[in-house]
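hey
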């Protein structure tokens, strides 16, 4: 769990994914469309990936990937991110981390 929390707080928006996960890809595209370049950690390519997956689940994420952290806090997985987006609550959360254009 220490590694997950350390990585989750390194940057403003962090997403834990698996390379073959289409929902992970969709969440990353959403962030890019909203002007945010998240740090992506593909846990299936990490030697400690299985332990990281268990740690993400223990933190309360309903699905281990994608696991989205904003400002070092667990937001959740796809359902939570999409619900925030549809309600208009995601953009304000991301505002401090948008790339200037």
């Amino acid at each position: 769990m220490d590694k997950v929390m350390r990585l989750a707080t390194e940057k403003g928006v962090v997403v834990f994914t698996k390379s073959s996960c289409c929902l992970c890809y969709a969440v990353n595209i959403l962030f890019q469309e909203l002007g945010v370049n998240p740090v992506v950690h593909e846990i299936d390519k990490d030697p400690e990936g299985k332990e990281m997956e268990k740690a993400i689940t223990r933190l309360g994420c309903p699905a281990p990937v994608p696991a989205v952290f904003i400002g070092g806090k667990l937001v959740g997985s796809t359902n939570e991110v999409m619900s925030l987006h549809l309600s208009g609550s995601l953009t304000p959360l991301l505002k401090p981390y948008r790339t200037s254009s």
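The mean pLDDT is 94. The CA atoms of residues 1 and 55 lie 5 Å apart.
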